[in-house]
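Q: what sequence does this backbone want?
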């Protein structure tokens, strides 16, 4: 079992009995530790864990000869091999009655389908998110929320809780993403420009994302900036959300907002808080997609005159609740009442970092973020 119990553990153990499991997610979110924890009596050098980046393990994978005594086999970072899908398909078709297969990687394994046969019907896909408040605290305490907000949800810096370590970790993680993950997966001639883009994103968190302005700042064309933003999404560095436009509202339909998988990179307290909430909601959406098969969407509401709600969560194309972020607990957003009278969204929450909890109407609730987590069963 994993040293730090993760929210997907039981679900993945169950699914491994039926099909392969692909586990994607951002670098250093805990995928390797999680996978090793599922291996019986795991220790360094265990033959059931194979990492494509290790030359000895790479030869073992290519040979297709595995230890018979281990039911579970883990293949880490194998997506960096151009024909990995055909290779894994062959292993599974031949050994599915004697072995279980867990494939992990720090990129979207559902996107990098290089080479060969489809694996359709042979695997379940999960996304392992960084730690969230419900994972680190059963009591959902304010103390734990403040620590999580400051040090982020990636296990190493969160558990160390050191300012100097966090800064060093940020630098190392960015370097690995840009100079290792992206280089391995994409043909980028000017990799230094990707680094400029990465450094330009924090100041745009929570605001409407102008890809045109971003392209002008970095001195590339619109199609290039769009491609680079997609690459950053595919290696789990950032993610974008689109607008929700119900017919009753004249919404700005082509707007986007961008957030980082690591909110602790952000210096602005307001942007960090909004990103923190966004990441919790995205984790909720991905959990319901990966575990229950629902179509989930995280969006925001912004009309033509500038009224806005930070987040709308949709389940199977229907809105289930809206969330507005405030650091304080006193001032209620006027936009909540306006949209509640004009849209089919059943519940509106204004979440904050304080302790006050009260209802504004039968559809609008102001409450601490921890209480919101309990009500909507965030993971």
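A:
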């Amino acid at each position: 079992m994993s040293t730090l119990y993760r929210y997907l553990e039981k679900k993945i153990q169950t699914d491994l009995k039926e099909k392969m499991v692909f586990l994607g997610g951002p670098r250093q979110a805990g995928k390797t530790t999680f996978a090793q924890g599922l291996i019986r009596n795991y220790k360094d050098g265990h033959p059931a864990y194979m990492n494509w980046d290790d030359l000895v393990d790479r030869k073992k994978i290519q040979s297709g000869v595995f230890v018979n005594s281990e039911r579970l086999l883990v293949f880490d970072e194998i997506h960096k091999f151009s024909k990995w899908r055909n290779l894994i398909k062959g292993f599974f078709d031949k050994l599915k009655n004697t072995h279980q297969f867990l494939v992990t990687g720090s990129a979207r394994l559902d996107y990098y389908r290089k080479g060969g046969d489809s694996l359709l019907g042979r695997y379940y896909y999960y996304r392992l998110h960084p730690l969230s408040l419900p994972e680190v605290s059963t009591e959902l305490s304010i103390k734990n929320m403040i620590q999580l907000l400051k040090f982020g949800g990636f296990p190493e810096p969160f558990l160390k809780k050191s300012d100097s370590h966090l800064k060093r970790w940020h630098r190392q993680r960015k370097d690995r993403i840009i100079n290792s993950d992206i280089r391995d997966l994409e043909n980028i001639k000017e990799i230094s420009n990707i680094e400029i883009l990465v450094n330009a994103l924090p100041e745009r968190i929570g605001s409407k994302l102008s890809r045109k302005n971003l392209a002008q700042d970095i001195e590339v064309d619109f199609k290039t900036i769009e491609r680079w933003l997609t690459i950053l999404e595919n290696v789990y560095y950032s993610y974008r959300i689109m607008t929700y436009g119900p017919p009753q509202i004249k919404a700005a339909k082509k707007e986007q907002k961008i957030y980082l998988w690591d909110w602790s990179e952000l210096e602005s307290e307001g942007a960090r808080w909004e990103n923190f909430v966004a990441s919790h909601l995205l984790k909720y959406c991905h959990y319901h997609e990966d575990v229950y098969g629902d179509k989930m969407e995280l969006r925001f509401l912004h009309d033509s005159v500038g009224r806005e709600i930070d987040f709308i969560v949709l389940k199977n194309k229907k809105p289930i609740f809206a969330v507005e972020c405030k650091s304080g607990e006193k001032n209620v957003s006027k936009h909540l009442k306006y949209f509640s009278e004009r849209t089919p969204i059943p519940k509106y929450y204004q979440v904050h970092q304080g302790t006050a909890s009260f209802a504004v109407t039968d559809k609008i609730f102001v409450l601490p973020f921890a209480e919101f987590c309990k009500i909507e069963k965030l993971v």
